[in-house]
Structures are given as C-alpha cells and as structure tokens.
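Please, structure for the following, as tokens.
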Amino acid sequence: MATVVLVQLLVLAAKSDEAQATAVALRLGTRIADIADPLPDGVHLALMGGRRQLWEVEAGRVVTTLSIDFGEVRDSPALRRAVLATGREPRWIVDATGGLGNDAFVMASAGAQVELIERSPVVHLLLEDGLRRALEDEGTQAAASRMNLHFGEAGGLLTRFRGCDVVYLDPMYPQSGREGGKAKGMRFLRLLAGDDDDAGELLQAARRTAVRRVSVKRPLRAPPLAGERPSGSLRGKIVRFDLYAPLPEDAAEEAEENRAQEQT
C-alpha cells in the first residue's frame, strides 16, 4: 500500500470564511490561522472567498499557489483515443489516480461518466472545491456533472466499480528533477500523495475491474508499469498510453505469485 504523506499544514482563512475553515480543519486534523497574521513557512491550505488554494510560504511570503480550475483544462486527443475508444456508449471510466483531475475532466467533457478516486485528503479537498465551482459555471457544468469524486485508496475502492469499461491510471512519474510546465502541480502532488509504490498491485486490481481495458499513462521513455508488458501503446510527443487487457481473477493471482517469486 502506498503511503500518503501527512503534511503539517494550517488552514488559513479570514474571519468571513471561519465556518468553512473549521469544517476543513476538522477533516484534516489541524488548526486554523488568521490569513491576515504573519504566515509560518511551509505548505498550507488557504480559504479565500470560499475558494481553496495550497500556498507554499517561504520567509513569510507566499511563493507558490495551487488551486483547481477545470475551466483551464486543455483537451487531449491522445488521452481520448487511449481511454474512450470502447466501442459502446455511454462509457463508464474509473480514474483511479485522480491527482488534479485534469484527465478526468477531459474524459467527462467527451461524454464519459467518470469515477474519480483520490487518496490524499488535501488533494481531495482541492478536487471537491474545483468540482463545486465547475458545477456553478455554465461552461464546465455538463462535464462536471458526469464526475463523481471518491476518497480513499483505489486498490480498496475498485471493487465497487467492477464492470466499468476502462480503468485509467496515471501513477506518479519517477522523480527526474525536471517536471516541465507541470512542475508546480507535480511537486505538490508528490509532497501530499507520496510515490506510487503500490502501482503493480493497483494495475492488477484495475485489470480485474475493467471489462474493456486498462490505460496507463507513462513518460515516453519509461519502462512499462511494474514491468508488465502492455498489449499495445499509443505514443505522443512526451507521454504514451500503455493498454492492458482485462485479467480474470485466477490469472491475476497467478501473475502476482510469479512476480513475488521473481523478486525473491
């Protein structure tokens, strides 16, 4: 099982947001600080006008902020080809590694019903806030209405969705020191959600859940997830999507036993 990193953050809020801040602080098991007071260094969850943001504070100054705005998500034709070409309508997709929700929103915008799973309580709070605002905006309302957010470990939750068309996995990339234009979001995700050291088990669980396929997003030159050779791949300029066939329960157990023997 992967380890979720528990960041010792504060909930920063003005007096006008105190009610929401109290509820959020209880969910995180932390305390509230007045946003107008001097800011302690670290990563904190700020509430401003009801909007949730992560703030990174250094030397008392906010140096980085992160929030979720689905209105800024760009389409991804490669993702749609890799995930949504199921051959039937409607399509029921499980995004088992929710993150910032961008890929889930692309799939929902294309008409899929998407179950979005996120294990980090802080990232889940950001997703919850982003979906709330998306449902209030005419431009994003239709897609957001097709997204259901779930909190917890995907390995334990996937059994709820057995029979879905596709399970989509976008596990944390191996840390390279270079994360391009997504460096801010990836850095926060790595801090809050930890590394995906349970990726092999999650892949097997996904293959037992989906009836069409499992699609795994990988860096273009990265090895297959957990060393499992895919049945096919769709390659883009910087990422690829590895495709896996569904796996019967008995075959999945045999594959896990073989992997365990190889590691001993």
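The first strand starts at residue 11 and ends at 13. The CA atoms of residues 43 and 121 lie 14 Å apart.
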